[in-house]
Amino acid sequence: xxxxxxxxxxxxxxxxxxxxxxxxxxxxxxxxxxxxxxxxxxxxxxxxxxxxxxxxxxxxxxxxxxxxxxxxxxxxxxxxxxxxxxxxxxxxxxxxxxxxxxxxxxxxxxxxxxxxxxxxxxxxxxxxxxxxxxxxxxxxxxxxxxxxxxxxxxxxxxxxxxxxxxxxxxxxxxxxxxxxxxxxxxxxxxxxxxxxxxxxxxxxxxxxxxxxxxxxxxxxxxxxxxxxxxxxxxxxxxxxxxxxxxxxxxxxxxxxxxxxxxxxxxxxxxxxxxxxxxxxxxxxxxxxxxxxxxxxxxxxxxxxxxxxxxxxxxxxxxxxxxxxxxxxxxxxxx
Amino acid sequence: xxxxxxxxxxxxxxxxxxxxxxxxxxxxxxxxxxxxxxxxxxxxxxxxxxxxxxxxxxxxxxxxxxxxxxxxxxxxxxxxxxxxxxxxxxxxxxxxxxxxxxxxxxxxxxxxxxxxxxxxxxxxxxxxxxxxxxxxxxxxxxxxxxxxxxxxxxxxxxxxxxxxxxxxxxxxxxxxxxxxxxxxxxxxxxxxxxxxxxxxxxxxxxxxxxxxxxxxxxxxxxxxxxxxxxxxxxxxxxxxxxxxxxxxxxxxxxxxxxxxxxxxxxxxxxxxxxxxxxxxxxxxxxxxxxxxxxxxxxxxxxxxxxxxxxxxxxxxxxxxxxxxxxxxxxxxxxxxxxxxxxxxxxxxxxxxxxxxxxxxxxxxxxxxxxxxxxxxxxxxxxxxxxxxxxxxxxxxxxxxxxxxxxxxxxxxxxxxxxxxxxxxxxxxxxxxxxxxxxxxxxxxxxxxxxxxxxxxxxxxxxxxxxxxxxxxxxxxxxxxxxxxxxxxxxxxxxxxxxxxxxxxxxxxxxxxxxxxxxxxxxxxxxxxxxxxxxxxxxxxxxxxxxxxxxxxxxxxxxxxxxxxxxxxxxxxxxxxxxxxxxxxxxxxxxxxxxxxxxxxxxxxxxxxxxxxxxxxxxxxxxxxxxxxxxxxxxxxxxxxxxxxxxxxxxxxxxxxxxxxxxxxxxxxxxxxxxxxxxxxxxxxxxxxxxxxxxxxxxxxxxxxxxxxxxxxxxxxxxxxxxxxxxxxxxxxxxxxxxxxxxxxxxxxxxxxxxxxxxxxxxxxxxxxxxxxxxxxxxxxxxxxxxxxxxxxxxxxxxxxxxxxxxxxxxxxxxxxxxxxxxxxxxxxxxxx
Lengths: 334, 832
Prior knowledge:
heterodimer, B: elongated
């Protein structure tokens, strides 16, 4: 009995080997797998014949049968895998693209360079405890000038070319400084550390370095122990963080009606020159008093800068008018 | 202010190189604008010289020996000049040396000298090198220089004629060489709008010693009180009026040294009397006015010339020196005589009383006028003179006497006049000296530098402050010229200037950190900006000023804009910018228009304030709006492009994205009508009950008005209404652990039934297992009856605690189908 079985097994083994040598695609291998090992495959009937094998021979027969099954299985699998890889290689070769073709366009939005500059400034000043405070753009003459020690007909009003509205005593703010008064009135008697960003307006013709609308960022600190030394330290830190440690910083006496002493700050450029960058000073006692503070007990400093100027120096932009002409070809570069 | 170093050195003895001095002044508040170097003077040592700087090498003092006619050219002369090397010949066209004259001192450029090319069109030409030439047959070995050729001034009508005792052949740089520091004078440093003021600063800041003293005064004429009288109407307007009479003067050019100083100071010399008033103003800071004495009329019935300082009366007029008739009003302060106005006080004199070539006797005025009135008058008449530039910043009345005496003395010396005995001094408002109690610790408190009271006193004294130590504090008397100092803080600034700001200590903020507060408005705004940029929109920032026409253009149905309803400017730079915007879209459309010319896709947003006047309120409300404009190709031109054009649903998708990005889930969209928008493609966005704004496709006529093509999508939202609904912390549910079951549903309903009604009904009916619905098909046409449409949704069922069985899902799904049939008369497709 076992001999017959042996014979059949050998026949199937040979047939399978012959078939496999003919198979030249992975699909053909799959067909062979079904032909031999499928439900109606050639190996399956042999299993039925196990019943007819006498008990003492069953172990040997089983071994033979399993050997056949494993042999066919692994032969087909190995051949199939080899073919499949070959076929995949061919397909991958066919799928090659010109990688220099442009990608599928995805519209990319960006923030305006002034917003980006402001965000950077917010971060730098936040590290030093200055929080953002915003106030209105249309102001009374009182808030924009008088409360800031700029009474009517003060010579320093010449430094502020002003847009007046048809409503008497209402102006477009010429600086962010009226925000100081709003802030002080809101927070007094607490100490203050804040930056005040926003649009300001000056009645002046535009050129490469002047705009009639511009952003200012103003900073103030009020407390029991605020000195010009703190102001210098703060501004040094700001300039070094924004423009790099290698910048030298120059402090010189200047004049702003709302600060006393007043100080102008410049930083070194690459050619050894000085670039004016901001104005600052110790808050004028009259301004502190207008905000509700006792200037004999507390002190404060204030500084203010043109955000466009910071952006221009940072990015090397040479014409301030670029910012608000909103040419997308300009804006999309930042 | 132009500061001649040579002039300065006559007023103050100091020892500091000019470059260092310039920086010291600069750091102390006299901002250096430019340094002008003339020739190669000693005081220029160490200064960096500009390219093309003329050193005046080989330019020497010469004397004209003879001036002859050129044989072949009527307009040319031949000058024989001695400049230390024997007679040399120059052919010149200078009209100010006449044939037959000799003895003039001139600046001679000999061979090898470099002079300014006065004939070049180039504003900054390369210097001309002097070499022998022939002009119309006559040799010309040297050049007799004009001021222009030496870059002293623009003057090139004649050659420079000097007056000097220096020997012939002296290098011209030794005579004329100088450095001029051009500094910007801020209003608080108006005291330095004159050389004496600068000299005081230099003495203090550079450790020098003032040389200048009180002017000389030799009054040898008849008593002045018999020669004219002065009244002042209002001492608030005129605190002091001093006057003198100088008789027997001769009008002629002023001496060379004075003319040269005026020239370097940027003024044009005229004749001695006018030059002296200008010179003294530059020297001491006191503006002066010289009248022809005999033109000043007495009061009716009297015979002594009379001056009254008073405000103008309505209807009065005055012809000023510049030959303009000025209409006066009651706000203008005048100098009048017995017959009427003779001058605008501190602004400009009158034509009738001016000094002329035949003037013999001078009435000299040195007065003090109210600076506010002076500013207003100068602005009103748009008349900005050197005098009003000084008056309008405030001057100490103490200065009147100094200026008057100095000018009278110069008229005596340089014009041969005799000064009347005494001087008129009407001084109704003599200011008391300012005394400030400076707390001893004040400088330390404000500057953060450790200073004793004595040290503070030692710093203030060189600036002219008289300091008296009183215990811990300092009693400081302010000198007359420091009208800018009135508070302890002003004195602290002086201390800082003396110490040099650059050298003051620096430290990181040492004070306590104030309580930190959240700024939700800013956070919200920045978040919205970030999300909109993530959605592919470019942020723009626009001008907030616009004009009625632009607003009208964006409202195609004939909106008539009333500018009165806007915040309206009184003074405009252009008619394009006359009112403040109330909405974002009109100005954004202008930006879109400009960009559309070179872009196939424009997607932009702006977040900024709009300005809404409120009845009964002085100031407008300034809410922040969000504007969006979107038009053109869905994708930019590409080889794998989506050919589609942007439309309503692209914008809607962005609005959805914005809301999702802000974690806002309860948005409500309603069709709405708006002037600017397409009547069928405009939606209102509501969050709960708050109207946030509108969006949609703009009306084609709006697009046309701004030269835009295709469907132009736009949105305008109120930022506050939007961010009010941003949850502080988003609702969070963990990702599901059990599998979901997805089943589709398709139904046919009336077209009038909006999608959101269907979707919310499905969601209601599917509770609690139905998690989401997704519309994936909208169809009208074949197989769907007229007036109906087919909607297909993909429904996702899921439970958080178990795997759903088919039965459970089927039961809910059928429940939904049934509900749709009953409540919306929907026909469920796929069901027989």
